Amino acid sequence: MIELLKFTNVKKIYNVRQGIFSKPVQAASLSDVNFTIYDDSTLSIVGESGSGKTTTTRLVLGLEKPSGGTIKYKDKDITKFSKADIKQYRRKVQAVFQDPYSSLDPYMTIENLLKETLTINTDLSKKEIDYRIDSLLDSVGIIPEHKKRYQDEFSGGQRQRLSIARAIALEPELLVLDEPISALDVSIRGQILNLFKDLQKKQHISYLFISHDLASVRYISDYIAVMYFGKIVEYGKAETIFENPKHPYTKALLKAGMVKNVGENFEQHILEGEIPSILDPPTGCPFHSRCKSCHKLCLEKEPWDLQIIEKDHYAACHLFNDFTI
After folding, report:
1. pLDDT (tens digit, 9 = 90+) per residue, 76-87?
2. What is d(CA 62, CA 66) in angstroms, rounded to the nearest whole number?
3. Strands across the sheet with 42-46, in order?
4. CB atoms near residue 273 (< 10 Å)
5. Among 48, 13, 14, 15, which Cα is nearest to 33's?
6. How far does Cα 14 stand from its chain's mean position?
7. Which of 59, 129, 232, 246 is the most exposed place for a label (fewest CB within 10 A)?
């Protein structure tokens, strides 16, 4: 496998003011984040709101720079890219967002939306652009004859298909999928997930998938990174994480998100408490106030970085500090 994108000890620290006249304080949104996205594969990042998923997404897209560590794309540090490198990177790394309505210009026809992207970023002739537009629409399940329509003439699922068509127009190698199905009807979600898998197989695209929908995560993922309070607390192959979770947070997250039966006692699945504020980080393990396996060391000392549990399976927890990489 080829390492397409690699995070190594990535940090992101913001200077935050808590009042008009207060001095700014440093707040760590990400701390020593490590993961790798391989070619033709999908890495999903899961975690509650406030865990650091959005910050990670912004760093991958180059919208912000890390405060420490390195982000490498094909073994090249993206923070040291020239203007030409950045332009090429943004062609190869595209995004599909949660709300297709806000990501598509309502005053442009679908044809013009795609034509604008292709005209600015490629040297294709007018005839080649017209053919490319029809091909793109067909690949995402939209009838090419509908390209003269505006986005409000399409359903929500169709609009997301159009967003995907625009995202793949420049033949990217990596797509950042930021909650791409959460705004869709349940009946449509499976169709969009199948579309992503079909495109990955045909066009060899890798995905960074961000979602709260654990069933979707399990279906589409090759690897999963569980994030909490700006750190990855468990990492491994998708089936391993779902079948044999190790970190107490992963277990609680999966239990809370996978109530299977209507008659099942929902109370026992509730993950109590909230993620701490980055403006007031706790001592010890950030999860200790919510953890049923908490002991004295958890209150005093933050766990080491990810420790190997078994092949391709890592967790950051005092329960596993007897293991070494």
Report:
1. 999 999 999 999
2. 9
3. 93-96, 174-178, 206-210, 42-46, 223-228, 231-237, 313-315, 307-310
4. 11
5. 13
6. 21
7. 129
Phi and psi at residue 285, to the nearest 5° = -75, 130
pLDDT of residue 323: 40
Q: Which domains does the chain have, with CATH numbers?
A: 3-107+150-320 (3.40.50.300)
Q: Kindly state the average pLDDT of the residues 288-292.
A: 91
SS (H, E, C) 247-304: CHHHHHHHHHHCCCCCCCCHHHHCCCCCCCCCCCCCCCCCCHHHCCCCCHHHHHCCCC
How many alpha carbons lie under 13 Å from residue 175 in its C-beta half-sphere?
Answer: 29
Model-level pTM greater than 0.85?
A: yes
**The tokens 């690949």 sit on which residue?**
139
For residues 28 and 75, the answer to whether their CB atoms sit within 8 Å is no
Residues 153, 191: Cα–Cα separation, whole Å: 20
As a residue count, the chain comes to 325
Nearest to 177 by CA among 56, 64, 74: 56
Q: Are 210 and 45 in contact (CB under 8 A)?
A: yes
